[in-house]
Every structure is written in structure tokens, then in C-alpha cells.
């Protein structure tokens, strides 16, 4: 068996083209430009790259983007004051705090200060609570991207057994809940397992759809996957590679080559889930701008 590759770049491009058209209509019809504010504290190189990518993506589809670069020594009080200002700014529809934050700043305190109406990352307890009970709100971007990928790839979610490996608040718990909902693109039977689960391979082999989000390089091997399963690899890990020009290469949580030979479809790393995360951030920002019309 040779697995189909679920191309995140291609799916993201299709969705972004639709968003760009809707943004153009929103500007012409309602004179509203969706606006996203990105806040970066410190000079973490990976965070700087992510922020540049987000700003570039905004510009490409017509979202107004502004970046706030703060020194690593910025106090929690100063950061909270900036968030308060952005909460009140009518041209800003979404606020994104680039993580991780410096150790002296309480991450939850910062994220919870963003009003739920501008929480386009979907991390505020109000939005997470709405997700839990199946009410409209902003969904966390990576799980939302996974669900969209599955739908665009034509994967049968309803009635399938989904096994999620990983229980983080950012990916594992939300995607399990989203696919469990009594709704389109969901209605799955969901099992969540993790590093403390007994006989993990026996659980993962039951999956029609296996979602690996545990943050361990190439942990999921062929013997852990059922023949004909669909595998979504959320992991992105840097491992040493002396043969690479950079001295390292990026791999997922799945041992790609051997699992791809056994499964029905699989996401690559990079180029799978990653492009979808930023795309759903753009989607949520547009939705927030739409919501402001009725607010």
C-alpha cells in the first residue's frame, strides 16, 4: 500500500483564496478591514520566524496586521496594559500573543486578559467552554486545521474511531473534543492516550484515524498503526543530521517512511498540519471582523 499524501500547503492555499475573496467583499460592502495584532516579547529566533510568517500571510490575503515587539525585560504589568489597549482598539479584531513568554510573566494571566471576542487563538476559557458544549466560538487553530484537513481530504470522520496520542491543552484535548461533537465533520468515537497509557501500541492499532501530537520524534512506528488507517502527524521536532547543510532536519512524531507504506493517507512534516494552523488564525480573524458588525 502506498499512502496518499494529505497536502497541508495545498489545502491551506485553497482556504486562503476563499478568505481573500470574503475579505474583499467585507471591505467593499461594509468598509471593514479585518485587523490582527501580534505581540512578541523577547527575541526568541523561532518566535520571530513564526511572527514574520503570520504577518506575511495577513498581507497576502488583505488582513491589516500590526506587530508589537517588546523587550524580554518587559514587565507583566506593561504587557497587560498593552492588551487592554488592543482590546479597546476598533481596528483590531484579533490579538495573538506569541508563545513562549519570558519566565517572569504568567502565561495564563496574559492569555486570559484578551477579551474572548478577540481571542483568535482560541485559548480563552470562554472559547474553550463554548467548544466543549458545541456552541459557536473561536476554535484553537491547530486542532481546527486538523479537522479542516480531514474534511478537505474526504476522510470519513463520522463513525470512525479516532485515537489521539497526546493530551495538551493546545492540540490533544481540543481535537478530541471537536471530533466528538454531534456536528458535521465530527461524530467520531474518540480515545485519548498519552505517555502513561498502558500498552499504547494496542490502543493506536485500533485507530481508523490516528492523530499524533505527543512531541516525541518518530515515536509512532509501523507496528503501532492499523493497515489502511489515516495518520495525522502534528509533531515538528528538530533532530541532528550531519548530512544536512543546517546540521539538523525536521521530523514529526511519526516515522514517516515506514508508516506511509502501511496507512491509507498521511500528513508530511513539514507541509502537513503546520500551514493549516496559520490559515485558521486568519479564518478566525475574519470571523471576528464579521462578528463586529453585529456587535
Q: How do the strands and helices of this protein lay out in sequence?
A:
Elements: E1 4-5, H1 8-30, E2 35-41, H2 45-61, E3 64-70, H3 76-88, E4 94-97, H4 107-113, H5 125-133, H6 141-152, E5 161-165, H7 172-180, E6 189-193, H8 200-204, E7 209-212, E8 230-233, E9 237-240, E10 248-251, H9 256-260, E11 265-266, H10 274-294
CATH-defined superfamily of the largest domain: NAD(P)-binding Rossmann-like Domain
CATH-defined fold name of the largest domain:
Rossmann fold
Specify the CATH class of the largest domain: Alpha Beta
CATH architecture level-2 label of the largest domain: 3-Layer(aba) Sandwich
- Series of H and E elements: EHEHEHEHHHEHEHEEEEHEH
The number of strands is 11
Amino acid at each position: 500500500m502506498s499512502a496518499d499524501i494529505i497536502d497541508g500547503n495545498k489545502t491551506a492555499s485553497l482556504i486562503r483564496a476563499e478568505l481573500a475573496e470574503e475579505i474583499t467583499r467585507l471591505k467593499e460592502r461594509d468598509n471593514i478591514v479585518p485587523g490582527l495584532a501580534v505581540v512578541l516579547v523577547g527575541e526568541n529566533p523561532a518566535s520571530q520566524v513564526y511572527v514574520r510568517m503570520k504577518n506575511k500571510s495577513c498581507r497576502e490575503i488583505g488582513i491589516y496586521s500590526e506587530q508589537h515587539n517588546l523587550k524580554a525585560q518587559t514587565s507583566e504589568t506593561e504587557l497587560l496594559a498593552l492588551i487592554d489597549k488592543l482590546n479597546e482598539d476598533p481596528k483590531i479584531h484579533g490579538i495573538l500573543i506569541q508563545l513562549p513568554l519570558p519566565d517572569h510573566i504568567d502565561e495564563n494571566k496574559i492569555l486570559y486578559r484578551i477579551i474572548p471576542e478577540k481571542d483568535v487563538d482560541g485559548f480563552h476559557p470562554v472559547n474553550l467552554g463554548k467548544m466543549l458544549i458545541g456552541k459557536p466560538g473561536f476554535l484553537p487553530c491547530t486542532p481546527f486545521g486538523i479537522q479542516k484537513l480531514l474534511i478537505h481530504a474526504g476522510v470519513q470522520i463520522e463513525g470512525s474511531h479516532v485515537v489521539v496520542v497526546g493530551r495538551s491543552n493546545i492540540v490533544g484535548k481540543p481535537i478530541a473534543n471537536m471530533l466528538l461533537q454531534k456536528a458535521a465533520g465530527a461524530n467520531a468515537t474518540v480515545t485519548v492516550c498519552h505517555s502513561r497509557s498502558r500498552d499504547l501500541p494496542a490502543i493506536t492499532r485500533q485507530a481508523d484515524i490516528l492523530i499524533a501530537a505527543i512531541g516525541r520524534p518518530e515515536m509512532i512506528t509501523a507496528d503501532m498503526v492499523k493497515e489502511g488507517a489515516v495518520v495525522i502527524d502534528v509533531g515538528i521536532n528538530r533532530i541532528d543530521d550531519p548530512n544536512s547543510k543546517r546540521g539538523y532536519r525536521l521530523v514529526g512524531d511519526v516515522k514517516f517512511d515506514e508508516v506511509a507504506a502501511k496507512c491509507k493517507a498521511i500528513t508530511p512534516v513539514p507541509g502537513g498540519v503546520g500551514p493549516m494552523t496559520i490559515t485558521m488564525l486568519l479564518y478566525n480573524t475574519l470571523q471576528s471582523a464579521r462578528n463586529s458588525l453585529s456587535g
